[in-house]
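ok here's SAC3/GANP/THP3 conserved domain-containing protein, seq below lol
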Amino acid sequence: MFHLAFFRKIYVLNSVQSICDSLAIDVYEANARICLEVGDFSEFNQCQSCLRELYITNPRSENKFEFWAYRILYATALEDTKTVLQEQVEYANTRAKDAMVRLALDIAYACRAENYVKFFTLLKQCTYYGKLILHKTKWALRFKAITLMLKAYSPAKFPVQKLIKILNFSSEKAVRLWLNHIRVIQKDGYILCKESQKTIRSPRFKVRREGQNGVTHNVL
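and the structure came out like this:
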């Protein structure tokens, strides 16, 4: 938190003095990354607004497209389709070809189409900071996906282990903990699809990042 407070003081000073050089860009970019680390998305958004202006006056900035991709992912996380489309048009007009921006646009499309298979495939290619932006989106799509799967495969059973790859979990233990929390019925390594449609519930908790030992839940 010391680093966050330190950078805030610096970039406030930059704003007051209207500094628009590479140093200001470095400060805003560093602060934006720290905001993602601590989950301060309001501050992150402010940094992004400042960076957008700074990149106009410094078009050759090294990380311009990285933070452009983050803007698209942030709008995706907010389900702000209008902003995503605006970013897409603006990017197309530049005729640039950047892998991070292209990936962000593909992820946005997958979310809009609720194509969870494509979303989780693309999520694996995301940068660390991109995954932080999409953290809540990831859990929301997992719940939508399992709800659809229960209906699609009912009255049959579905192997729990397959969800590791489909929904991008770190381990079978992580999958089982999550299924237990949303009250999906499991038996002998399988999900009972028909029975689970009556018991499944939307999670009302904040989910921390997955670790090697599974999923940790933080109750509201």
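fwiw The first helix runs from residue 2 to 17. kinda neat tbh
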